[in-house]
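Good morning N.,

You mentioned wanting to compare the apo and holo forms, so I went ahead and generated the holo version with S-adenosylmethionine. This is what I fed in:
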Amino acid sequence: MKIDTILQGDCIKKMAQMPSYSIDMIFADPPYFMQTSGCLNRGDGTRFLGVDESWDKFKDMQEYDTFCKNWLSQCQRLLKPNGTIWVIGSMQNIYRLGYLMQEMGFWILNEVIWTKPNAPPNFTGTRFQNRHETLLWCSPKKGSPYTFNYKTLKALNGDKQASSVWDIPICLGPERLKGADGKKLHATQKPEKLLYQIILTSTKPEDLILDPFMGSGTTGAVAKKLGRHYLGIEREAKYVKAAQKRIQSVSCQMDDFAQLTFDQKPPKILFTHLLKKGYVKVGQYLYTPQHKKARILESGQLKCGAKIGSIHQLAAQLQNKSAANGWFFWHILTQNGYQPIDILRRKI
Ligand SMILES: C[S@@+](CC[C@H](N)C(=O)[O-])C[C@H]1O[C@@H](n2cnc3c(N)ncnc32)[C@H](O)[C@@H]1O
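and this is what came out, ligand included:
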């Protein structure tokens, strides 16, 4: 199976040709079946371009449900036993998708609410402004193991446990692909930040991500940036072409988040090892989170005022605790500011 590519065609047919248990994660942003008709104008009379595309048309609910059952069952077959699927939808389709998925044996791990601070208003003032979409994160069956990069997401969230409400602006400005007429190329291009959060949550570097409704290529672009592989399927040739061009122009940027550094088990290393290898020196200062200094002694112990002890003992003493983890308490001063000495042992 060729990866890091976009296949043009119907996703049900294309997925049927792929081997079972070959995919680590799926992101599916299917047609919503909006059932809209007519034009919608803004307050100033200009036309609002919502979703009124041929790919979003179905005869009735029954046809839509059959379509969804078919692509979902292919996804369930393709997922590795420890893989997961994210399905995104609006009020028009998310309840049908959730019902079908539960009927098929998928197990919902989380429902995530994507709130949009810059969503368009309800132009007619006849209902609430629609300011969110819903994502269902599921494993193929109850009890399957799955990847959840808890610590990476916590670090990304300012060291607070990440929640199921994500506030992310809709895609505007230079990120939004434009057609030759200067108008948005794709009606439902998702913001890269949404895919960034999804991919960091549930994949590891080198994992293979499938997007059966690739559209403008958001999933492929973010997967490539984060050092993951992708496989996209898209029916419309013009979107395939635009997505290929978009993905070609991005490069991989493997920072601590992409590498999931925060979720990796810390290596078993003694502080004296850092000293022997020259990562720290005798006489050098380490700093507490409040920037109080301690000097490194020849023995590998630290001295702070009259107190002497190992990195852990002194960290505990200074915090009036019975025990503490010195790797995160003590900091070195770098070009990027104060950093915990944990980064030094990870370098070794
Ligand atoms: C909601 S959009 C996905 C947008 C995408 N997530 C992005 O960020 O650009 C759905 C896409 O699925 C495509 N599509 C609809 N039915 C399809 C099918 N049966 N097989 C493959 N693609 C399909 C449409 O052409 C459309 O581009």
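Residues 10-11, 29, 31, 55, 186, 188-190, 213, 215-216, 218, 233-236, 239 surround S-adenosylmethionine (CB under 6 Å).

Happy to go through it together on a call whenever suits you.

Best,
F.
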